[in-house]
């Protein structure tokens, strides 16, 4: 299969390579970029485990080919929190509220919620439930996740006011 | 808390935040698919598209010609037959990693293709040319015992797996005859699956020169897997190392390794490079195990006062083609633990299990939970039948504190359980009486509100001297004074790195931050039973505490020698040993470990250097937890959609190590129960094709379906060290029944009886239309 040149900025670093056109973005991120924090649960666009930000928008990286992200700015879970700054308010809220058990779905939830709260700073409970409903978690029963988003939203709103 | 607690309980009982979280929240988890080894190859399976067929021929030539394909193995390559997991009385067929002559279900592994990438392996799978001679399959397990039914395993000459029955009992017949009412229903459970978000997976590397096999896996019980792999592969046990770091759920499905898992390991040993196999979701939904496909015909004799007189069960189970657990387990548990939290003077049962040309039955969180689903849905049918409120029927029949120890017909004894108490707490938390008023008002407007109760007593942490009931912990006080605790657990989300550290920190008298739990690796941990059967807190917690106490005793002995004090006069608090009542006279733990590891000349006569203690403990036969669930819902008359309004759990898992973790287990379990009751289903067509093979067709509960789950606790400590009882499976066990009962209660004014799930909008609409026709 003919290979294609692809170059994208992932978490602020340029990654370039020659890939098969059929290589999915998630496989490019996990294997070519060695960023294994992004997971797959269905490879069909349903579970949300593979969610990353492409030019700031949450996308299912199992449904995109790497070549479609050519030239894009991609943010994966490795580009959110951690490091010297520690956890983001969203990640901290997940920890505080037991929003994860096995942690397999978690990167997809975190990325989804970071984008959601950026775009919807003061969400209603209903909006939170709706925003989370594109992601599947098999462990938590969603209780801790919903509570975490509430906490993070309230905290971010309070910070914005002050 | 246990009576022998060393330090004050500061961590046990507190909702300590999880150790596991920072890495998992930032993409730093290490799941099996994250393991990359130099030279690693990738595997994919060719699977049967037919439910029953003879393999006439397999042509791998075209596939082998694909650049990047390294090897293809088929049944002809003689991977040895799988040894049984357990001795069993049942009719058990030979199991080979790859189909030899016959395929017996859609998804049956026929060939394994090894290539440089997963993409290439999948391409090559398409080119493996298998000629099948199709046969008529047996798909309906209820017909599998009939004369002339196609036989799944010809060598057995029958589809019968096993059957059991209680002896004829004239007193039981007399009790039915003497009852004011006898109700009878057949209650069916549909086929669905554990569906961990991470599918199954392995990275296996065989070091031929060293004779060592290293297996990274998504599993639940590393040592149990290691023993099985060694036996299957003909290797010495110590030549196999099983590692599971982070595992993305399992819920029973990853507890036992099946044919395709073993094919991966055999293949890995025949190639000279590490091999990765990560199951895709379609494989997971078709070839990993399915669960809960069974039915029970139940007869209940009851008097006008609501008191139960007699119950008889006729239980029929679908084993699929290659059941992944001993045939006796689920029906045996149902028969032995029925009728759960209620006093029933007379009881009888029969059960029978059949092979079919479908995916294997395997364990899924509360594998025997039909016991609760059938009993609790039937109790509501009985309550409606005699015109008594379902809460009242349960109240009148519940085992009370004064009845305990209470012996069931099977000989199982309930003690230290609180079904009457959880019932009252749950009903109270649900504002039951108030809901009934709201329901009456809503019904007057034609709206369908419902409330459903389910209680159960759950056997957890099976012990009784067998390997699953034995656990060990090795505690090492490191030269630095930090604490490492090695355990044979295999967490797939259970938080044991946190909860076990809470126990150890308390029992030792050190800071929580100073304790690390190492688990999920057979090379470091003492032999243990892993995470299944709601055992980790009960058995693991007990043994971690015991080892910590031993280590603490040694620390105090040595400190006493160094400080010239009697060990009994010393205490260890926050990593400092001091004389009780005079804190000025003290030694830091690090000073003591310096002597232990680096000053043998200062040790008392006869004391070994170092501080490292192991305890291995065999748990008692079983530990019982119990709970009552209450679910409230509204059913939309026009769409058949169920809206869950509220959900309450009152539970008793004894002493909680970490209430946050316990509540997480309950909530997660409840939602799996709700999913099973309302959405999840893998139907088969008449030809044996599974009809839900991806997440578009296999519906899972998501956040907008799930109400707040409110949880109350009754704490009746068990008699095991620590007083813990299992909390892993109960949420699911009660979740199905409470949800079904809520929907059934909503539809009760229409005169509808629900005996089948899932309660999909189409099923409910049909019932509603039928009722109004
Ligand atoms: S893996 Fe992409 S949505 Fe499930
Ligand atoms: S935490 Fe396990 S799937 Fe969400």
TrEMBL record, chain A:
InterPro entries: 2Fe-2S-bd, 2Fe-2S-bd_dom_sf, 2Fe-2S_ferredoxin-like_sf, 2Fe-2S_ferredoxin-type, 2Fe2S_fd_BS, Beta-grasp_dom_sf, Diverse_Oxidoreductases
Entry annotated with the keyword Amino-acid biosynthesis: no
Domain 2Fe-2S ferredoxin-type: 4-80
One Pfam family matching this protein: Fer2_2
Keywords: 2Fe-2S, Iron, Iron-sulfur, Metal-binding, Oxidoreductase
MF terms in GO: 2 iron, 2 sulfur cluster binding; metal ion binding; oxidoreductase activity
Protein name, as recorded: Unannotated protein
Organism, scientific name: freshwater metagenome
Lineage of producing organism: unclassified sequences, metagenomes, ecological metagenomes
TrEMBL record, chain B:
UniProt xrefs under InterPro entries: Ald_Oxase/Xan_DH_a/b, Ald_Oxase/Xan_DH_a/b_sf, Ald_Oxase/xanthine_DH-like, AldOxase/xan_DH_MoCoBD1, AldOxase/xan_DH_MoCoBD2, AldOxase/xan_DH_Mopterin-bd_sf
Family annotation (SMART domains): Ald_Xan_dh_C
UniProt-recorded Gene Ontology molecular function terms: iron ion binding; oxidoreductase activity
Aldehyde oxidase/xanthine dehydrogenase a/b hammerhead domain: residues covered: 26-136
Coiled coil: none
Gene3D superfamilies, A to Z: Aldehyde oxidase/xanthine dehydrogenase, a/b hammerhead, Aldehyde oxidase/xanthine dehydrogenase, molybdopterin binding domain
Record keywords, A-Z: Molybdenum, Oxidoreductase
Keyword set includes Ion transport: no
The protein's name: Unannotated protein
Upper taxonomic lineage: unclassified sequences, metagenomes, ecological metagenomes
């Amino acid at each position: 299969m003919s290979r294609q040149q692809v170059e994208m900025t992932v978490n602020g670093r340029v990654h370039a390579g020659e890939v098969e056109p059929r290589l999915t973005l998630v496989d490019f991120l996990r294997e070519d970029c060695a960023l294994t924090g992004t997971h797959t649960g269905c490879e069909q666009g349903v579970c949300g485990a593979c969610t990353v930000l492409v030019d700031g928008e949450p996308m299912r990286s199992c449904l995109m080919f790497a070549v479609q992200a050519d030239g894009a700015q991609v943010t994966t879970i490795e580009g959110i929190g951690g490091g010297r700054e520690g956890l983001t308010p969203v990640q901290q809220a997940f920890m505080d509220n037991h929003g994860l058990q096995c942690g397999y779905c978690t990167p997809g939830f975190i990325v989804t919620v970071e984008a959601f709260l950026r775009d919807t700073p003061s969400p209603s409970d209903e909006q939170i439930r709706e925003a989370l409903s594109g992601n599947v978690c098999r462990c938590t029963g969603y209780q801790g996740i919903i509570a975490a988003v509430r906490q993070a939203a309230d905290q971010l709103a309070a910070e914005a006011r002050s | 808390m246990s009576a022998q607690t060393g330090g004050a309980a500061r961590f046990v009982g507190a909702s300590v935040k999880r150790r596991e979280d920072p890495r998992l929240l930032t993409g730093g988890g290490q799941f099996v698919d994250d393991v990359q080894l130099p030279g690693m190859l990738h595997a994919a399976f060719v699977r049967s598209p037919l439910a029953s067929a003879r393999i006439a021929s397999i042509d791998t030539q075209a596939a082998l010609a694909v650049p990047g394909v390294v090897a293809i193995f088929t049944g002809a390559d003689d991977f040895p037959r799988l040894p049984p997991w357990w001795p069993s009385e049942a009719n058990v067929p030979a199991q080979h990693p790859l189909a030899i002559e016959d395929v017996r279900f859609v998804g049956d592994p026929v060939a394994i293709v090894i290539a440089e990438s997963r993409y290439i392996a999948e391409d090559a799978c398409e080119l493996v040319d298998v000629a099948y001679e199709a046969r008529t399959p047996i798909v309906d397990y209820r017909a599998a015992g009939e004369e002339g039914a196609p036989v799944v395993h010809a060598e057995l000459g029958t589809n019968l797996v096993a059957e059991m029955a209680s002896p004829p009992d004239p007193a039981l017949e007399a009790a039915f005859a003497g009852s004011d009412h006898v109700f009878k229903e057949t209650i069916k459970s549909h086929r669905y699956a554990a569906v961990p978000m991470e599918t199954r997976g392995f990275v296996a590397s065989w070091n031929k020169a060293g004779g060592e096999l290293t297996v990274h896996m998504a599993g639940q019980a590393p040592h149990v897997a290691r023993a099985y792999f060694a036996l299957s592969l003909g290797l010495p046990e110590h030549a196999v190392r099983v590692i599971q770091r982070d595992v993305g759920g399992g819920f029973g499905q990853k507890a036992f390794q099946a044919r395709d898992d073993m094919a991966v390991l055999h293949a890995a040993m025949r190639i000279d490079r590490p091999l990765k196999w990560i199951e895709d979701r379609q494989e997971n939904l078709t070839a990993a195990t399915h669960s809960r496909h069974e039915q029970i015909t139940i007869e209940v004799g009851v008097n006008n006062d609501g008191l139960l007189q007699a119950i008889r069960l006729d239980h029929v189970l679908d084993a699929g083609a290659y059941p992944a657990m001993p045939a006796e387990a689920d029906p045996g548990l149902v028969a032995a633990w029925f009728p759960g939290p209620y006093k029933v003077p007379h009881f009888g049962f029969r059960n029978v299990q059949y092979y079919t040309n479908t995916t294997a039955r395997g364990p899924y969180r509360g594998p025997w939970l039909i016991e609760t689903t059938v009993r609790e849905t039937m109790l509501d049918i009985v309550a409606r039948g005699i015109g008594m409120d379902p809460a009242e029927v349960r109240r009148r029949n519940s085992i009370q504190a004064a009845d305990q120890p209470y012996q069931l017909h099977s000989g199982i004894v309930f003690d230290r359980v609180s079904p009457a108490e959880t019932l009252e707490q749950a009903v109270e938390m649900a504002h039951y009486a108030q809901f009934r008023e709201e329901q009456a008002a809503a019904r007057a407007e034609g709206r369908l509100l419902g409330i459903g109760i389910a209680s159960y007593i759950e056997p957890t942490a099976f012990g009784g001297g067998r390997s699953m009931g034995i656990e060990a912990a090795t505690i090492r006080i490191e030269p630095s004074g930090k604490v490492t605790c090695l355990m044979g657990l295999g967490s797939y989300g259970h938080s044991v790195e946190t909860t076990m550290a809470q126990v150890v920190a308390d029992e030792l008298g050190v800071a929580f931050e100073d304790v690390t739990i190492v688990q999920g690796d057979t090379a470091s941990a003492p032999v243990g039973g892993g995470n299944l059967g709601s055992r980790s807190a009960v058995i693991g917690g007990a043994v971690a505490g015991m080892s910590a106490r031993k280590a603490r005793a040694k620390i105090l002995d040595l400190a006493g020698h160094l400080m010239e004090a009697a060990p009994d006069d010393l205490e260890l608090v926050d990593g400092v040993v001091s004389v009780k009542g005079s804190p000025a006279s003290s030694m830091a733990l690090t000073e003591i470990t310096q002597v232990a590891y680096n000053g043998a000349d200062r040790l008392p006569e006869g004391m070994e250097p170092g501080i490292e203690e192991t305890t291995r403990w065999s748990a008692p036969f079983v530990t019982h937890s119990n709970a009552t669930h209450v679910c409230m819902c509204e059913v939309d008359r026009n769409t058949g959609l169920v809206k869950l309004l509220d959900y309450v759990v009152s539970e008793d898992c004894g002493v909680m190590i970490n209430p946050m973790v316990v509540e997480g287990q309950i909530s997660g379990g409840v939602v799996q129960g709700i999913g099973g009751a309302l959405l999840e289903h893998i139907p088969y067509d008449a030809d044996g094709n599974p009809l839900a093979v991806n997440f578009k067709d296999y519906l899972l509960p998501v956040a907008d379906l799930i109400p707040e789950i409110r949880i109350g606790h009754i704490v009746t400590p068990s008699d095991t060290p620590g007083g813990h009882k299992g909390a892993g499976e109960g949420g699911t066990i009660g979740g199905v029944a409470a949800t079904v009962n809520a929907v059934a209660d909503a539809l009760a004014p229409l005169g509808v009886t629900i005996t089948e799930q899932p309660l999909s909008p189409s099923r409910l609409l049909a019932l509603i239309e039928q009722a109004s026709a």
